[in-house]
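FAQ: What does the model actually see?

It sees only this:
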Amino acid sequence: MGRGLPAGAKELRSRRCHSRDDRGRDLPAQPRAWRRHPHAHASADERVGDGPRRGPALSGGPRGSGPRAPVAPRRAPHLRKPDGGVSVHSLRRLSALHRGGRNRGRRSPCGDRARARVAIRSAVTDRASITSGRVLVTGASRGIGRAVAELLVSRGARVFATGRDGAALESLRALAPEQVATFEAELTDEVERRRLVEFATSLWGGLDGMVLSAGIVRYQEALAITEADLRAQLDVNLIAPTMLLRDFGRHLRDRGTGGAAVLVGSTLGMRPAPMTAAYAATKAGLHALARGFAHELGAHGIRVNAVAPGIIDTEMIRAVRLREGEVEPEGPARDARIEAEVDGLRALCPEGRLGTPEQVAEAVAYLLDAEFVTGEVYVLDGGLGLR
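And it is asked to produce this:
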């Protein structure tokens, strides 16, 4: 051993090797960390024993009676007292001694907010389908709103129907008097909206769903739009739904049971057609409203979606579209003009036919019960967007 080494190498080697075995052979030098903290590399049982920096050994060992080294203030490790009958796995060495182990410093998942979410999730899971619950439907006098109300009644729901045509609402109530309550209201009036919400939320002990279908349209060329017509469409198509959705969301939040709302938008909110610029703007706002509310109300178990119908065969499309300065025809001439315009709309659809309110109602019912769908704008246009 040592043959061929330069002068002084033997002495240098002996300085580096501080340990020899029983036969006088040099042992490899121990790592620096081992020399500084020998107890951190002891056996699992000794590691948690009371060396210079540890407490009593778990199962009683030779280090259990050693003196404790003084620890500087504010440097004392936050160690929990080990259980005398439990051994520590080697992979969990130091983390087993700290309060909280590996989760030390992390936020507990069982805070008040987490518990509230769990409670809401449980309530939503235990609740029956919304289409057989209590649903407020606006614009229920005719068109899509009427079709939605009738479909929900057929599925066992209790429907609170509102609109401006009292006679039409009464005919709806006559279909199932025990399931339908009506409220004739002008949704642009703040006082009437407040009365509507108070009545609807107290009648059957609360609401589970809401369908906002009320809307109006004013066909005008872009350069002929008047402020009065623009404000009228904004009031009905955007402002009233916003306020109703806000009040509905507060009601469901306070109850803590979750719920769902569906807003009736339009494909015009995505692809405006001639003479619909103002109307299209209100529907685009309605789509954004659905997404914005869905983002904020999701934590309360409230889902908000919208449907975007294409050309649906309702009274809304059977109106004369007048150019600036044009006089509206009357009698048979008016009817012929309307039919010609409807035929032109029908030709835009790949299948050559218009959608029906009942088809839109089916989509609305689906979104009311679709538990994993929120913030979506569901398009039903019969392929109109392909053109």
